[in-house]
Amino acid sequence: VATPVWLDDGTGNTVGLFRQCTSGGCINANQVTQGGLSIFGLLLLVFAIVANIAGIFMRGKPIILWIALALLYFSSMFVMSAYATWGVYSRDPTLYGFATFPGHTSMGYSYNLCVAAHYFIWTALTLLALGIGY
Length: 134
Prior knowledge:
By secondary structure, the chain is α+β, with helices and mostly antiparallel strands. It has three helices and five strands. The longest helix is centred in the middle third of the chain and has 28 residues, at 63-90. Helix 1 (32-57) packs antiparallel against helix 2. It has helices at residues 32-57, 63-90, 109-131; strands at 7-8, 14-15, 19-22, 25-28, 106-107. Keywords: Membrane, Transmembrane, Transmembrane helix.
């Protein structure tokens, strides 16, 4: 979420969730939808981790692990929604105003990290589901 390169044109112009940087400097350009979805997804992930840790120490209460499972699921949905809506945003070059052709922009490493995070959340979700016997 905090990494600044969600979209890159290869010449130093980048767009992040909270800043847009060109050769003239950086300006605040909040991508409200994607920023909100990804931050909420990360908050749900933190709560899921806390619930998993609590579930480990409270063996007699399996409901906590079920709550962690639900939190991981919704976390993955919010993270996926963040990068899916970013994909729609990145297809329209008039929204971010680079002076390059649309074919010259590419997804930056921040977008790739978000996709990888979604994969690892689903991996954790699968392992937790197997662990609680679902």
